[in-house]
Amino acid sequence: MTTDRPRVLVIACGAIAREVLAVIRLNGWSNVTLRCLPGQLHNTPQWIAGRVEEKLQEAEAEGGWERVLVAYGDCGTGGTLDRVVAAHGVRRLPGDHCYAFFAGVDDWLAMHEAEPRTFYLTDFLCRHFDTFVIKGLRLDEHPELLPAYFGNYVRVVYLAQTDTPELARKARDAAAYLGLSLEVRRTGYCDLRPALEREAAGGEVR
Predict the structure, then answer these.
(1) Could you tell me the pTM of the whole model?
(2) Is the per-residue pLDDT at 137 higher than 60?
(3) Cα separation of 77 and 13, whole Å?
(4) Distance (Å, rounded) from C-alpha 53 to C-alpha 60?
(5) CA distance linking residue 118 with residue 97, whole number of Å
């Protein structure tokens, strides 16, 4: 690795930590540091912007970071996260959700337009479906609420970052639990990888 690369801090959603670390390892970066917020914020998007701002303030107090990337989509913050990001003069990943940058923003928008009644899974959500969906929505305590939450959905699309049989099985189990058909799309890291690579090299994210 050349010594002229910038010191980069990535403040990421814990739901994509594994994928960010994978890209860091693939590139052999020693100039990139990852700090994560809890993946549980996925269920409380109204808290995301404030928690990210705390991390940005900590980074500014430390000093020494030449570039800071917020590894989130808008993630249901209604533009609040973008206002925080702009106020601190940093950037975030492209897209509204992790689904967008894993599928590719244009492809995800096309999928959503073609069938908005879609429930999306990623590798992370396959691993933690019980915690984030079943228990997170208290369906383990109140299974009668399942139709209220998911009655309008018609399919599950699993955006697979890796080709892992165990996660494929979990995706099938999740779709069966929801009573929906399953489509699997092997996306890899898609827009996540080039966005991180541009930032680590000192280029533009978007």
Answers:
(1) 0.87
(2) yes
(3) 13
(4) 10
(5) 14
